[in-house]
Structure formats: C-alpha cells, structure tokens
Known about the structure:
Layout: H1 2-16, E1 20-26, E2 29-35, H2 37-62, H3 64-138, E3 160-161, H4 224-229, H5 231-275, H6 279-290, H7 310-333, E4 348-351, E5 354-357, E6 364-367, E7 370-373, E8 379-381, E9 386-393, E10 399-406, E11 409-419, E12 426-427, E13 432-436, E14 446-453, E15 456-458, H8 460-473
Antiparallel strand pairs: 1-2, 3-15, 4-7, 5-6, 7-14, 8-13, 9-10, 9-12, 10-11, 11-13, 11-14, 14-15
Helix pairs in contact: 3-5, 3-7, 5-7, 5-8, 6-7
Amino acid sequence: MTETLAERVWTWLHDTFPERQVYIRSDGRVQFFTFGPTLQATLAGLSLIFLGWVAFATVNVIFKDRIISAKDHRYQQMQSAYENRVADLQLSYDEVNGALVSAEDKFKATADELEAKQSTIIGFLDRKKQVDATLAKSDAAPAAPGDAVSIDNDAPSDSLDATAPPSSSVNGNGSSDLTVSPQPVKPQPRAAKPTHAGLLDFGGAVGRIAGALFGKRQAQEIAPETVARHPVLRRLAAQTERVKRLGTTETMLMARTQSEVSEGVRNIQAVLRQTGINPDQFAQKIAGSEGVGGPEIPLSSVHIEGIADASFQEAYLRASAVLEQMTQLLTGMRHVPLITPVSGPQFERTSGFGARVDPFTGRYAFHPGLDFAGPTGATVRATAPGRVMWAGPRGTYGKLVEINHGYGIHTRYAHLSSVTVQVGAWVAEGSPVGKLGSTGRSTGPHVHYEVWYDDVVRNPRKFIEAGRNVLQQK
C-alpha cells in the first residue's frame, strides 16, 4: 500500500510538473536548461511560502493598530477579571476575618460575664455564710439555760401600758456591695418618710458604689448566612450558646438563694411576732438607730460590673436586698432577750405574767413579769446584751438592775440580794448582774423578771418560748 501511494504521488508530480526545457540563444549559440518535476515542485513550494509571507506581512502592516488594540483589550479584560477575583477573595477574607473577630469577642464577653456571675455568687454566698455564722452564734449555748426552768401555766393577758426610762439605741452594721450606674436620678422629696422594713435602703451604700461598665467593646452581631458558610464560625457560635446557657443556671441559683434567704427572714420575723414585737416596726427602729438615708435609686439604675444579663442582675439585687434585710433583723435580734435570767433544776417559776391574787393584800392585781424562785445568792444573768440603766434599790422592787438593750427593749431584775454591776456598764448576754434574794416587796428568795418594749411591759414568757423555738429549729 505504501508503494502504491508513492507511485501515485510520483505519477501526480510528473503529470503536474512535466519535464521542461528552457532554451537560451546568445551569439549564435543555443543553450538549454532542463527543469525536472522535482525541481519544479520545489520552486513552486518556495514561491507559495514567499507569497504567504508577503501576504501576512502586508496584513500586519495594514491592520497593525487593530491587532494591537484587540490584544490590549483582551489583556485588559483578563486583568480586570483577575483584579475582580482578587477583590472578591479579599472581601470574602475580610468578611470571614471580621466575623471571626466578632465571634471571638462575643464568646469572650459571654465567658467574662459567666465568670463575673460566678464571682458575684461567690461573694454573695460568702456574705450569706457570715450572716449564717452570726445567726448560729446568736443561737448557741447561752440560750440553753432557758430550758431548765418551767414556765408553764402562765395567765394570759394583754400588754400593760406603763412608764419606763427612755430607751437608747444600739447600732448594728450592714453593708451592700452594689455598683450603681452613674446616671441622673429623679429629684427627691424634701421631707423623708420611713421606708418599709421589707425594702432595702440603698442610701447607705451609695458612698461605696463604683462606676458601671462603660467604654467596653461590644461584640457585633454576625449574619446567620455568614455563620452557616463557615464551619469554624458554626462551632464557635455553638460554644458561645453553650456558655450562655450555663449562665442561665447562675440566675436560677441566685433565685433559689433568694428564696432560702427569704425563708430565713420569715423565720426571724416569726420569732419576733411570737414575742409580740411587730417585725416591720422593729426593722424601722434598727434602720433609725443606724442613721441611714439618701436618695431613692431605682433598681433599674443598679448594675453589676461585667454582667449584662438583666434577669441575673434582678435576681442578685433582690437576693442582696433580702440578705441586707436579714442582716438588719439579726442585728436587732441579738438584743432581744430570749432566755431566762436563771438556770438550773433548783429554780422554779412561782408566778406568771398577768392577773393574780396579790400575796400581801389578797386582792386581784396585775403582775408585770415572771418570778423565778431559787436559793439565795444564786447568780442572776442578763438575758441579752445592753447597758445598765439602774443598779440599786428602787422602791417595792428592792434591789433592782435595769438594762437597756436598745431598739426600745428593757429588762428588769428585781428583789436581788446584791447588785454586781454599775450604772453605765455594758453587759453581754449571760453576764452576771446580781445575786438572787428577797429585798423589797417579796415573800421569799426569787428574781422578778420584766421585759419592756416601747415603754410597754410585755409577757416574758413569749420571749422565752420564742427562744426555745429558735433552738428547736437549729
């Protein structure tokens, strides 16, 4: 087949370019040149190449500008497409980088807020622990002697109005570690009114407040479609939400703590009611003795530094208010006489509070206290801390010791054989104030014990029974 194709080409070549001879005559002589098919084909090919090159060169010369313009236009299009692609990539990078920075800021802000919540809760629980320790200390061993004396079968009676030496106040202490935002408050009235005992007075805390959170960079919101396109952002957003959900448990913890503290406040108020003292009025006396005041700042203006969760702030502020209320009540409760002035099986209650047959006249009369009979010379002790207002003979009381416990509370210890304290002395709960005897209007050795509140003599039995209930709750 190869030989046949070569033969065809050879045949076509000889048919197209047959052998030719060129004759040249010069000076009577004739010369010729022979051109074979191969030479003719070669010359024809070279001629076609030359003509093609001439045509190409001519076209380039004539259409040079157009060709160059077309090339430039095509290059510019490619360059523009490349620059647009680079710009798109840069925008995408900036978007992702900005979203990542915002996500990191949001995560950090959420984590910082959670840490601030935990620190706030720890501080609050520390304060609560101190209050609980104070409560436990106030309800410890000194109250035990009251269990050793029988006080059953008292005659019931109402309070009896009488006169008594003016009372003095004993200052309590309390603090409120709150941060109030420095924003304008509404004008306050010129005349102040007493506040309800159940409300927290923030005036005493204004001097200790710090500035609220200002100037901090806030995390920008990220478009959901941006988060959806990038796995890293999705994972970071998921972790941020997880940390935020953990923060809700802190709010629940504060609410539960508030409930527990509120229960403690109600218990203290119940003890006060059992003694016949109005808890709200008593709380006003405590606040009045401490000299509190200041403008009324709404809770919406109070913020905890580093925490933006409004529900947590409200829970914390309410819990703090209740804890402050509990602290104030405990301050006053330490001055409420809840034990008996004598202790031991050798003592017996011989006369109760209320109406009775007078042992000297045989007529019906009112007995303003409790009588505890016992051996002469036995120690009589103060039933609550306070300052001695009277120490010595006082009419039918015989030798009398009167103690001002503050907040309008006084106690009297009468018919003593001797007095072991002086006027103006400060005595602690359980401190000796005298020796049991039978001085004054008395039929035998005993101590006559009275409790006064707001210049009104009260039933000591209620105070002692309230103290017993406190011990049973412990």
